[in-house]
Amino acid sequence: MNYQLNKTSKFLSYILRHQPEAIGITLDTEGWVDINVLLLQANQHGESLTKELIEEVVKTSDKRRFMISEDGLKIRAAQGHSTQQVKIKYVEQVPPEFLYHGTATRFIDSIKKQGLIAGDRHYVHLSINEQTANAVGKRHGKPVVLKVKALLMHQQGFKFYLADNGVWLTNNVHTGFLIFD
To answer: CA 137 to CA 103: how far, in whole Å?
Structure first.
């Protein structure tokens, strides 16, 4: 991804997932904001955004972090929100037998004590494969991939959701459902 697309993606992540008030916008409960409002407010705060640039970020993002509404008028982050007004209603799904969580080795002692918790986000994020989880872990330091007994969790009453970008979501993962290699 070129510099401008990467910079725009990071800006959109910050605004659409964590701090919409930083540029004076409000997300609805499903995380949507009118693209024209976003453009106006972002440009008034010194960002050089265009609708075409936003569409290019959405189209070329390998992580599919953002979605544009079917009518092309609104944008939202697919998941990963920490802002409290956003409560996307995901449909509960039956997960595969195993899912994966990428983290850094420095967090392992804490995870062994308390499991995986959402922290500031609404959900724990899980990947369908080890490669994706490893890439996530690398963003936080020396990576380690944890295997999650997702289907067993589901069978014991834990809920799982699948975000539009393929990220699996759950409220938390107790240590008994984690496989540490």
So the answer is: 4
